[in-house]
Design goal:
The structure holds three protein chains of three kinds. By secondary structure, chain B is of the alpha+beta class. Chain B has seven helices and five strands. In chain C, strand 1 (105-108) and strand 2 form a beta hairpin. In chain C, helix 3 packs antiparallel against helix 4. Classes of the chains: A mainly alpha, B alpha+beta, C mainly alpha.
């Protein structure tokens, strides 16, 4: 086993174990902390794929900013065992079904992408994740989707401002 | 309104100008003021090594005086205890026995003389009340102590060193006192 | 052997890590001492001068005192997170030192050793990532204390750091447009050859400086630990060395952010601006040591600035803090970024409108 493989298995176990603990933790603050661990493990995977930019942006944006806001809200709401809603059996059944169907979709997608990965060995050890390549691709090949998504973000921001404004 | 001195400065409440709203000039001004203070003379002194000189009229720890032959001046008349507004002084009088003339100046003396330094307010009224010039306030202050008991000063703490047997210590304990009496 | 590791490289990096970590610890230690001395001289006092010559052993005495204090963990606190908080604060504070180029390379034992632990091509973003992690130590510590004041301190820290990270990041974008690289070492090399970035980005530097003050929770932005309204803020319940870790992390953060500012805007280990030092004809190792000393002098100046400002300017009110961050610094940094972009575009077109 090379050092990359050891790291891969370590990060995979960390990511999956963390993800299970996110769901299994009774305390929402613990859930968020485990989610941060998951994000770190995923960032580690990005680094293994030689996509340092993606990995650090994942940390800055998700683990650094969004999770802080999550933690902020959960800490302010002071959720504890007493405020937990009662569990209903049909709710558990529904979530089981939806979870399983999501898993099916993911497995199906992964199976169909197997061929694609085999034919394009760009990621592992390649330069696709480096910032220069990423920037050039984003602003040449995918410039229209990129700009459209930025307009989407802008409109979302304006919408948030409109909602947050007090009624005059 | 008519002002009395014309020195009153009217506070301006008008909205700040653009330059003031940037705050940076004011911040730099403040920083310059604090920077100048770095080179100022320090107000603190290194205490145990350096000591601030006390004023000659400083009223500190009490001293029970002796005369030039080393005899105690105090006759335990109790005027100081009466004068004391904080009721810090207690004493017990005793009669001088034959053969003790070199110890006490007069026939009556204080067998016990205690001042509670926690009660004392260092007003100096005892010094003024004393007809025999037996008590005066020196230019030191009571040092810190761990127990309250330590602040009750007895005769052995208060008595000035004997001028006959320990002349240097006596001179030192007198301090600026000599000069003061000479000018009287 | 399946694990093929280049042992000399590992050893070299290990030694460098030990030097950087212990160095930043010692410097942070003496920064606490310098803080007290600077506070004293600004207030016409003398400051600590009893422990050792000129009071130089004072930080050791302080550390020893913290070690021997009673370790109190509140009974209603969340013990694991209560301990995790200061550890995380300390860890993130130490991590940024890895990407800062502490000097050019030295030549030792027939090897050229770079005085930078990791020259990763996303150095600036790494700094940002670690800084944004730094808030977790404070938040977790504040929440786990199970104390309203601690929680408020933690929440204040979180919202403050998030608000000031935005203008900081946008300022960085402007700087990155000028330099065209994310690697800190390359930035320093560029500044050695041309001008210090401060000349290109004076407004950017000002915004960055203000944001750095806010990110370090230093006065005038020390609201998370505002003692007269929140008792001690997030470290109200902490005692002994865990409190020491929090306090120490603040000083390490100060040291590291000074190093980052010196590297980004003031030429890092460049000794004299607008001057080619290679004309002196000194050997590579001497130049590297001189460069490191120059960087340390710059860091020292920034540390002094941190203290100078702390003992001059009073603390903001919370709404003023948020107004400054969102209504002034954010638009200002956006204007700075757009202006920089426009100038660069014009320059590329040969000043042709």
């Amino acid at each position: 086993m090379s050092i990359t493989e050891i790291l891969f298995w370590f990060l995979t176990v960390l990511a999956l174990g963390g993800a299970v603990l996110v769901v299994a933790s009774r305390n929402p603050v613990y859930s968020i902390l485990w989610l941060i661990v998951v994000f770190f493990a995923i960032s580690g995977h990005y680094i293994l794929l030689n996509a340092q930019f993606l990995s650090i942006v994942n940390i800055i944006v998700y683990a650094g900013a969004i999770m802080v806001l999550f933690l902020f809200v959960v800490m302010l709401m002071n959720l504890n065992a007493e405020s937990e809603p009662p569990r209903r059996n049909n709710l558990i059944f529904a979530s089981l079904v939806s979870g399983c169907s999501l898993m099916l979709v993911i497995i199906g997608a992964l199976r169909s992408s197997e061929e694609f990965i085999k034919s394009n060995k760009v990621l592992a050890g390649g330069e696709a994740g480096l910032i220069k390549v990423l920037g050039k691709t984003l602003f040449n090949e995918y410039v229209i989707p990129f700009e459209i998504s930025s307009v989407l973000f802008l409109s979302a921001m304006i919408g948030a401002v409109v909602i947050a404004r007090k009624e005059q | 309104m008519q002002t009395l001195t014309n020195r009153a400065k009217i506070v301006e409440r008008k909205p700040m100008s653009m330059g003031e709203r940037m705050y940076l000039p004011a911040i730099f001004k403040g920083m310059w003021i604090t920077f100048k203070h770095i080179f100022r003379k320090k107000a603190t002194i290194n205490y145990p090594e350096q000591k601030r000189p006390f004023s000659p009229v400083f009223r500190g720890l009490h001293v029970l005086n002796r005369d030039a032959e080393g005899r105690e001046n105090c006759t335990a008349c109790g005027l100081c205890a009466v004068a004391c507004p904080a009721e810090a002084i207690t004493m017990e009088a005793a009669e001088r026995k034959p053969g003790e003339e070199h110890l006490y100046r007069e026939e009556k003396y204080a067998a016990k003389y205690e001042i509670n330094m926690l009660r004392c307010i260092f007003c100096g009224l005892c010094e003024e009340a004393c007809p025999k010039d037996a008590i005066y306030l020196s230019e030191t202050f009571a040092p810190a102590n761990y127990q309250r008991q330590g602040f009750i000063y007895g005769k052995d703490d208060l008595l000035i060193p004997n001028p006959v047997t320990e002349p240097e210590a006596y001179q030192k304990a007198l301090g600026g006192r000599v000069v003061k009496e000479m000018t009287h | 052997m399946l694990l093929t590791i280049e042992w000399p490289v590992v050893l070299e990096k290990l030694i460098l890590i030990i030097i950087v970590v212990s160095g930043s610890l010692v410097i942070a230690m003496y920064t606490t001492f310098a803080e007290r001395k600077v506070a004293a001289v600004i207030q016409d006092r003398r400051g600590p001068n009893r422990a050792g010559p000129f009071g130089l052993l004072q930080p050791l005495a302080d550390g020893l005192k913290l070690f021997f204090k009673e370790e109190i963990i509140p009974s209603f606190s969340n013990k694991a997170l209560f301990i995790l908080g200061p550890c995380l604060a300390m860890l993130t504070a130490m991590m940024t030192g890895a990407v800062i180029p502490w000097g050019s390379s030295v030549h030792l034992f027939d090897r050229t050793i770079s005085l930078q632990i990791a020259d990763i091509n996303i150095g600036v973003l790494f700094v940002f990532g670690v800084v944004s992690m730094g808030v977790y130590g404070i938040m977790i510590g504040g929440w786990a204390s199970n104390n309203k004041y601690s929680l408020l301190g933690g929440l204040r820290a979180a919202s403050q750091i998030i608000s000031y990270e935005l203008p900081m990041g946008i300022t960085m974008i402007a700087l990155l447009m000028v330099t065209g690289t994310l690697s800190l070492n390359e930035m320093v090399v560029q500044q050695q050859q041309t001008m210090w970035n401060f000349c290109y980005q004076p407004l950017g530097f000002l915004i960055f400086l203000i944001c750095a003050f806010a990110e370090c929770n230093r006065t005038p932005f020390d609201l998370p630990e505002a003692e007269n309204e929140l008792i001690g803020g997030y470290h109200t319940e902490y005692s002994s060395m865990k409190l020491g870790f929090f306090l120490f992390a603040e000083y390490i953060n100060m040291f590291i952010s000074s190093a980052v500012m010196a590297t980004l805007f003031f030429g890092g280990y460049d000794i004299i601006p607008f001057y080619d030092e290679s004309a002196w004809g000194l050997s590579q190792n001497t130049m590297a040591i001189l460069g490191t000393l120059a960087l340390l002098v710059k860091i020292g100046f920034f540390l002094f600035l941190f203290m100078w400002v702390r003992w001059t300017i009073p603390r903001f009110r919370y709404d003023q803090l948020m107004n400054l961050g969102w209504k002034i610094l954010l638009p200002l940094s956006l204007v700075n970024m757009l202006g920089t972009g426009a100038v660069i575009l014009l320059k590329q077109n040969g000043w042709h409108f």
